[in-house]
Design goal:
Helix content: under 10%
Number of helices: 0
Distance between the termini: 32 Å
Structural class: mainly beta
Largest sheet: 6 strands, antiparallel
Order of helices and strands: EEEEEEEEEEEEEEEEEE
Shape: elongated
Strand content: 35-45%
Number of domains: 2
Radius of gyration: 21 Å
Oligomer: single chain
Length: about 280
Protein backbone atom coordinates (compact mmCIF):
# COMPACT_ATOMS: atom_id res chain seq x y z
CA UNK A 1 0.00 0.00 0.00
CA UNK A 2 1.65 3.24 -1.12
CA UNK A 3 1.37 6.31 1.11
CA UNK A 4 -0.69 9.27 -0.03
CA UNK A 5 1.53 12.11 1.07
CA UNK A 6 0.94 15.80 0.84
CA UNK A 7 3.08 17.97 3.06
CA UNK A 8 1.81 21.54 3.13
CA UNK A 9 3.11 24.74 4.56
CA UNK A 10 1.60 25.46 7.93
CA UNK A 11 -0.48 28.56 8.38
CA UNK A 12 0.93 31.64 10.03
CA UNK A 13 1.18 31.50 13.79
CA UNK A 14 -2.16 32.22 15.34
CA UNK A 15 -0.78 33.69 18.55
CA UNK A 16 2.35 35.63 19.46
CA UNK A 17 5.30 33.53 20.60
CA UNK A 18 6.61 34.37 24.05
CA UNK A 19 9.89 33.29 25.61
CA UNK A 20 8.09 30.74 27.76
CA UNK A 21 6.06 28.97 25.07
CA UNK A 22 6.66 26.73 22.07
CA UNK A 23 4.99 27.34 18.72
CA UNK A 24 4.00 24.14 16.95
CA UNK A 25 3.12 24.03 13.27
CA UNK A 26 1.05 21.00 12.30
CA UNK A 27 1.14 20.71 8.52
CA UNK A 28 0.16 17.36 7.15
CA UNK A 29 -2.03 16.32 4.29
CA UNK A 30 -5.25 14.39 4.39
CA UNK A 31 -6.88 12.62 7.29
CA UNK A 32 -9.64 10.12 6.52
CA UNK A 33 -12.40 8.19 8.23
CA UNK A 34 -12.48 4.39 8.27
CA UNK A 35 -14.28 4.06 4.95
CA UNK A 36 -11.49 4.74 2.46
CA UNK A 37 -9.50 7.53 0.87
CA UNK A 38 -11.96 9.11 -1.52
CA UNK A 39 -13.01 12.75 -1.26
CA UNK A 40 -16.14 11.66 0.60
CA UNK A 41 -13.97 10.02 3.28
CA UNK A 42 -12.00 13.13 4.13
CA UNK A 43 -12.75 14.26 7.66
CA UNK A 44 -14.92 17.33 8.23
CA UNK A 45 -12.91 20.41 9.18
CA UNK A 46 -14.44 20.46 12.65
CA UNK A 47 -13.42 16.88 13.53
CA UNK A 48 -12.08 16.59 17.06
CA UNK A 49 -8.29 16.36 17.28
CA UNK A 50 -6.07 16.20 20.36
CA UNK A 51 -2.37 16.07 21.10
CA UNK A 52 -1.54 13.23 23.49
CA UNK A 53 1.62 13.37 25.60
CA UNK A 54 3.44 10.34 26.96
CA UNK A 55 5.46 11.76 29.88
CA UNK A 56 6.44 8.29 31.12
CA UNK A 57 7.78 7.42 27.62
CA UNK A 58 6.28 3.92 27.87
CA UNK A 59 4.24 4.04 24.67
CA UNK A 60 0.83 5.53 23.90
CA UNK A 61 -2.03 3.55 25.38
CA UNK A 62 -5.18 2.80 23.33
CA UNK A 63 -8.16 4.70 24.73
CA UNK A 64 -11.21 2.77 25.88
CA UNK A 65 -13.55 5.08 27.78
CA UNK A 66 -11.60 8.34 27.64
CA UNK A 67 -9.57 10.33 25.13
CA UNK A 68 -6.37 9.00 26.73
CA UNK A 69 -5.52 5.97 28.85
CA UNK A 70 -3.10 4.95 31.59
CA UNK A 71 -0.51 7.67 32.26
CA UNK A 72 -0.93 9.55 28.97
CA UNK A 73 -2.28 13.10 29.18
CA UNK A 74 -3.97 15.58 26.86
CA UNK A 75 -1.77 18.54 25.93
CA UNK A 76 -3.20 21.99 26.61
CA UNK A 77 -2.83 24.16 23.50
CA UNK A 78 -3.86 27.71 22.64
CA UNK A 79 -4.32 29.94 19.59
CA UNK A 80 -6.37 32.99 18.65
CA UNK A 81 -9.55 30.92 18.91
CA UNK A 82 -8.64 29.49 22.31
CA UNK A 83 -6.30 32.04 23.95
CA UNK A 84 -4.08 31.04 26.83
CA UNK A 85 -5.64 33.81 28.91
CA UNK A 86 -8.90 31.85 28.78
CA UNK A 87 -7.28 28.53 29.61
CA UNK A 88 -6.56 27.30 26.08
CA UNK A 89 -8.06 24.01 24.95
CA UNK A 90 -7.35 20.28 24.86
CA UNK A 91 -9.53 19.55 21.84
CA UNK A 92 -9.16 21.36 18.51
CA UNK A 93 -10.25 20.96 14.90
CA UNK A 94 -8.26 20.27 11.76
CA UNK A 95 -7.69 23.75 10.45
CA UNK A 96 -7.69 27.43 11.31
CA UNK A 97 -8.89 29.53 8.42
CA UNK A 98 -8.93 26.59 6.00
CA UNK A 99 -12.20 24.94 5.03
CA UNK A 100 -11.07 22.09 2.75
CA UNK A 101 -12.25 18.81 4.31
CA UNK A 102 -9.59 16.52 5.69
CA UNK A 103 -6.69 18.94 5.30
CA UNK A 104 -4.78 19.31 8.56
CA UNK A 105 -3.18 22.73 8.93
CA UNK A 106 -2.80 24.05 12.44
CA UNK A 107 -0.50 26.41 14.33
CA UNK A 108 -0.70 26.01 18.07
CA UNK A 109 1.01 27.44 21.13
CA UNK A 110 2.10 25.10 23.93
CA UNK A 111 3.29 26.18 27.36
CA UNK A 112 5.86 23.62 28.61
CA UNK A 113 5.06 24.64 32.19
CA UNK A 114 2.12 22.20 32.09
CA UNK A 115 4.77 19.45 32.38
CA UNK A 116 5.95 20.71 35.74
CA UNK A 117 9.54 19.87 36.61
CA UNK A 118 10.31 18.19 33.28
CA UNK A 119 13.43 19.14 31.32
CA UNK A 120 13.55 16.46 28.60
CA UNK A 121 11.34 16.80 25.50
CA UNK A 122 8.03 14.97 25.87
CA UNK A 123 6.77 12.57 23.14
CA UNK A 124 3.40 13.49 21.64
CA UNK A 125 0.94 11.90 19.22
CA UNK A 126 -1.80 13.39 17.08
CA UNK A 127 -5.10 11.60 17.71
CA UNK A 128 -8.37 12.25 15.89
CA UNK A 129 -11.91 10.98 16.47
CA UNK A 130 -14.18 10.71 13.40
CA UNK A 131 -17.76 11.50 14.34
CA UNK A 132 -16.85 13.90 17.15
CA UNK A 133 -16.89 17.66 16.62
CA UNK A 134 -14.29 19.80 18.33
CA UNK A 135 -16.70 22.61 19.11
CA UNK A 136 -19.32 20.29 20.59
CA UNK A 137 -17.17 18.23 22.97
CA UNK A 138 -15.79 19.21 26.35
CA UNK A 139 -12.93 16.73 26.61
CA UNK A 140 -12.47 17.55 30.29
CA UNK A 141 -15.99 16.42 31.14
CA UNK A 142 -16.71 13.44 28.90
CA UNK A 143 -15.10 10.68 26.88
CA UNK A 144 -15.78 8.83 23.63
CA UNK A 145 -18.46 6.17 23.47
CA UNK A 146 -17.23 2.62 23.87
CA UNK A 147 -16.02 1.27 20.56
CA UNK A 148 -15.44 4.71 19.01
CA UNK A 149 -12.95 4.68 16.17
CA UNK A 150 -9.90 6.90 16.25
CA UNK A 151 -6.79 7.58 14.24
CA UNK A 152 -3.34 8.23 15.66
CA UNK A 153 0.03 9.34 14.41
CA UNK A 154 3.39 9.63 16.11
CA UNK A 155 6.93 9.66 14.83
CA UNK A 156 9.78 7.98 16.66
CA UNK A 157 12.81 9.79 15.20
CA UNK A 158 13.49 13.36 14.04
CA UNK A 159 13.00 14.24 10.39
CA UNK A 160 14.60 17.34 8.83
CA UNK A 161 15.88 18.69 12.16
CA UNK A 162 17.68 21.49 10.34
CA UNK A 163 14.30 22.79 9.21
CA UNK A 164 12.94 22.87 12.75
CA UNK A 165 11.25 19.49 12.61
CA UNK A 166 12.13 17.61 15.77
CA UNK A 167 10.13 14.44 15.30
CA UNK A 168 7.13 14.24 17.56
CA UNK A 169 8.74 15.73 20.64
CA UNK A 170 7.76 18.94 22.40
CA UNK A 171 10.83 20.67 23.88
CA UNK A 172 10.71 22.13 27.36
CA UNK A 173 12.75 25.16 26.31
CA UNK A 174 10.43 28.01 25.40
CA UNK A 175 10.88 30.49 22.58
CA UNK A 176 11.08 27.86 19.83
CA UNK A 177 9.06 27.19 16.70
CA UNK A 178 8.90 23.55 15.59
CA UNK A 179 7.13 21.67 12.83
CA UNK A 180 5.41 18.32 13.26
CA UNK A 181 4.72 16.76 9.87
CA UNK A 182 2.64 13.59 9.76
CA UNK A 183 1.85 11.77 6.58
CA UNK A 184 -1.69 11.02 5.53
CA UNK A 185 -2.25 7.52 4.25
CA UNK A 186 -5.05 5.22 3.14
CA UNK A 187 -6.77 2.86 5.55
CA UNK A 188 -7.85 5.50 8.05
CA UNK A 189 -4.65 6.32 9.92
CA UNK A 190 -1.76 8.68 9.68
CA UNK A 191 1.32 6.56 9.16
CA UNK A 192 5.09 6.61 8.93
CA UNK A 193 7.54 4.03 7.55
CA UNK A 194 7.94 1.22 10.12
CA UNK A 195 11.48 2.25 11.05
CA UNK A 196 10.37 5.81 11.80
CA UNK A 197 7.06 5.70 13.58
CA UNK A 198 3.75 3.96 13.93
CA UNK A 199 0.07 4.40 13.29
CA UNK A 200 -3.04 2.92 14.82
CA UNK A 201 -6.42 1.89 13.57
CA UNK A 202 -8.19 0.88 16.73
CA UNK A 203 -11.77 0.99 17.91
CA UNK A 204 -11.68 1.67 21.62
CA UNK A 205 -11.94 -2.03 22.44
CA UNK A 206 -9.06 -4.43 21.65
CA UNK A 207 -9.14 -5.34 17.96
CA UNK A 208 -10.32 -8.83 17.08
CA UNK A 209 -7.60 -11.39 16.60
CA UNK A 210 -5.03 -9.66 18.82
CA UNK A 211 -5.30 -11.95 21.85
CA UNK A 212 -2.21 -13.85 23.01
CA UNK A 213 -1.39 -17.22 21.50
CA UNK A 214 1.45 -19.71 21.39
CA UNK A 215 2.24 -19.49 25.11
CA UNK A 216 5.41 -21.32 26.13
CA UNK A 217 7.27 -21.61 29.44
CA UNK A 218 10.95 -22.49 29.81
CA UNK A 219 13.56 -22.50 32.55
CA UNK A 220 15.77 -19.45 32.62
CA UNK A 221 19.27 -18.90 33.93
CA UNK A 222 19.56 -18.58 37.68
CA UNK A 223 16.45 -20.58 38.50
CA UNK A 224 13.90 -18.29 36.85
CA UNK A 225 11.35 -19.04 34.16
CA UNK A 226 10.67 -17.28 30.86
CA UNK A 227 7.21 -17.03 29.37
CA UNK A 228 6.91 -16.30 25.63
CA UNK A 229 3.80 -15.66 23.56
CA UNK A 230 2.61 -14.04 20.34
CA UNK A 231 0.22 -11.10 20.13
CA UNK A 232 -0.37 -8.06 17.96
CA UNK A 233 2.69 -5.86 17.34
CA UNK A 234 3.30 -3.04 19.78
CA UNK A 235 0.42 -3.69 22.19
CA UNK A 236 0.44 -4.21 25.95
CA UNK A 237 -0.43 -7.54 27.56
CA UNK A 238 -0.90 -8.52 31.18
CA UNK A 239 1.14 -11.41 32.60
CA UNK A 240 -0.24 -12.83 35.85
CA UNK A 241 1.16 -15.39 38.30
CA UNK A 242 -0.64 -17.46 40.90
CA UNK A 243 -0.22 -20.67 42.83
CA UNK A 244 -3.75 -22.07 42.91
CA UNK A 245 -5.45 -21.23 39.57
CA UNK A 246 -7.95 -19.16 41.55
CA UNK A 247 -6.21 -15.94 42.55
CA UNK A 248 -3.53 -14.14 40.55
CA UNK A 249 -1.81 -11.76 42.98
CA UNK A 250 1.29 -11.07 40.90
CA UNK A 251 0.98 -9.04 37.72
CA UNK A 252 3.27 -7.48 35.14
CA UNK A 253 2.82 -5.65 31.83
CA UNK A 254 4.63 -6.73 28.66
CA UNK A 255 4.67 -4.81 25.37
CA UNK A 256 5.09 -6.93 22.26
CA UNK A 257 7.73 -6.15 19.68
CA UNK A 258 7.39 -5.17 16.05
CA UNK A 259 6.70 -8.77 15.02
CA UNK A 260 4.21 -9.38 17.84
CA UNK A 261 6.56 -11.43 20.03
CA UNK A 262 6.20 -11.05 23.79
CA UNK A 263 8.50 -12.36 26.50
CA UNK A 264 8.58 -12.16 30.29
CA UNK A 265 11.15 -13.60 32.69
CA UNK A 266 10.20 -14.25 36.29
CA UNK A 267 13.58 -14.27 38.02
CA UNK A 268 12.16 -15.29 41.41
CA UNK A 269 9.30 -17.76 40.99
CA UNK A 270 7.83 -19.18 44.20
CA UNK A 271 9.06 -22.49 45.57
CA UNK A 272 6.93 -25.48 44.71
CA UNK A 273 4.68 -24.61 41.81
CA UNK A 274 3.34 -21.55 40.02
CA UNK A 275 0.91 -20.87 37.20
CA UNK A 276 1.12 -18.13 34.59
CA UNK A 277 -1.43 -16.64 32.25
CA UNK A 278 -1.49 -13.82 29.69
CA UNK A 279 -4.42 -11.51 29.00
CA UNK A 280 -4.92 -8.65 26.61
CA UNK A 281 -4.29 -6.53 24.79
CA UNK A 282 -5.03 -4.13 27.62
CA UNK A 283 -5.57 -0.44 28.11
CA UNK A 284 -5.70 0.32 31.85
Amino acid sequence: MNPVRLIIAASALAAPLSAGTVAVNLGAGWLFDAGGTGASNRLPVDTLCVLVADPAEDGFDPPVSDWVADDDVLVVVSDSEFPASSGGTRGFDLASGVTEPGLLSRSLIIDPAQFSGRTAPVPVALRWFPGYKAGAVDVTATGPAAGSAYGEFTRSVPVNPGAGTVGWLIPMDGGQTITLDPLAMPDFSGVDPPELGRASRLTGAPPAGTGPSGLSLALAAGGGVTLTFTGAPGLKYKVQRGTDLVSWPQEWTVTTGAAGAGAFTDATPPAGRAFYRVAGPISP
